[in-house]
Write a structure and sequence with these properties.
Distance between the termini: 23 Å
Strand content: under 5%
Order of helices and strands: HHHHHHHHH
Shape: globular
Amino acid sequence: MNPNTSPLGLANLGPLDQLRAGRLPERLARLLAGLWLYGVSNALLMESALGGSPWVVFHQGATLHLPLSLGVVMVLVAVAVLLLWIPLRQMPGLGTVANTLLLGPFTDFNLRMLDAPESLPLRCVYVVGGVVVCALATALYVGAQLGPGPRDGLMTGFARRTGRSIQRVRTGIEIVVLAMGVLLGGTAGVGTLVFALCVGPITQFFMRYLVLRLEEPADE
């Protein structure tokens, strides 16, 4: 297997090669749509009050041990995760920057648009919807091949370097992060468990159809 390409056809191109790889308008549209839907997913899970994603649990736990706000902790964790990209040789790109700058505002906007459900069945619908939308959003914006966000870059980097499926890698990362968050004192719920166990397989399913396979530029 080419170490620069994942089993699903995700090419590890440099930032400039990503922009020159063709179909740029379509890929930009997919990137923005994916990040928007990621914000919808975050809002659904948070409004369900049944537990956020494992990364949210980890961030909450870290704030209990640091004199920092949740937002600052999220930024610092993102930087630390980006450092883990170095041994994986994961390349950043426009999508990496867009994830960092847009995901927070998109989440805030959708939180203002969504009302918190009162009934338990509707809260469960929010959880299921949040997980499915997160998987779809990930496949859209990562599949645009403009560079993943810091946390999704771990997923694609490990998948490419090990040859393992997105499903196994994503699920493994979510479980490890969740365990660390709980040990730090973060609050988890049934929604967190559902997310950790289900988002990987569903992301794998959507990836099969939404990754845009690109030809790597020929060496000059």
